[in-house]
Each structure stands twice: as C-alpha cells, then as structure tokens.
Amino acid sequence: MSYQQILSQEELAELMKASETQPVLFFKHSNSCGISQRAFAQFEQYLQAPESQGIRHAVIVVQHARAVSDALARLVGVEHESPQAILVRAGRAVWNESHMALKSAVLAEAIRQH
Predict the structure, then answer these.
(1) Where are the domains of the chain?
(2) 26 with 58: CB under 8 angstroms?
(3) CA-based nearest residue to 107, from 12, 33, 26
(4) Strand 56-61 to strand 24-29: parallel, antiparallel, or no bridges (unpaired)?
(5) Can you tell me whether residue 35 is helix, strand or coil?
C-alpha cells in the first residue's frame, strides 16, 4: 500500500471530498524530529497490514506544507501536533492520535474500530 504526499490546499480539498466515499488517514510528519521518524516507520509498517486496504493515505510533511497542515487542523477541528494521525470520514475526524502512541497496531486498530 502506498500514500500520497500532499503539498497544496487543492490536494487537501480533493482528499476531504474523497473522504465522503472512502476513509482517509492523514499522517503529519516532521522530518526534523526523532519521535516523528519513529512514528513514520510505524506508519510504513501499518501500510503492510490488511487494515490499510480500502483506505486512502496522505502524508503532510510539515516543513514543506505547514499551511496545508494548519488547514487540515481547522477543517477537522483537531489541534495540530506532529507526528499525528487523523482518520477522516465524510469530512469529519473520527479518530486521532499523536507522538509515542503512533504504533502500527494502534493505527490498524483505529481503522478496524472506525
């Protein structure tokens, strides 16, 4: 399974619209943070899990797309953190977690439950 790195407001808008028919898991990543590097490795491991099928995945590298990260926070009402995962269905955040809690099994469980 793969993910889409989003850099623009237009890409964010397209994914929010897509969330009407297919869940989207957004992963906010800081490429200058050790905790975020560990969390991103867990995200990549989760992408190999069966739960990742049927879900769209989007990565926002905050150093490259801070405005997109801030826009997502406003749209779904979840305060920005990084690393952070936000599961969006029908334009609404149904689950989110951040920092050390971002483990492959936690992401897979969130998909199963929501």
Answers:
(1) 4-113
(2) yes
(3) 26
(4) parallel
(5) helix
Residue type, 74: R
What percent of the chain clears pLDDT 70, i.e. is strictly above it?
99
32-87 pLDDT tens trace: 999 999 999 999 999 999 999 999 999 999 999 999 999 999 999 999 999 999 99
Strand partners, 34: none
Question: How is domain 4-113 classified at the CATH fold level?
Answer: Glutaredoxin (3.40.30)
- Is pTM beyond 0.90? Reply is yes
- Return all residues near 44 (Cβ < 8 A) that are at least 6 apart: none
Cα–Cα distance, 103 to 44 (Å, whole number):
10
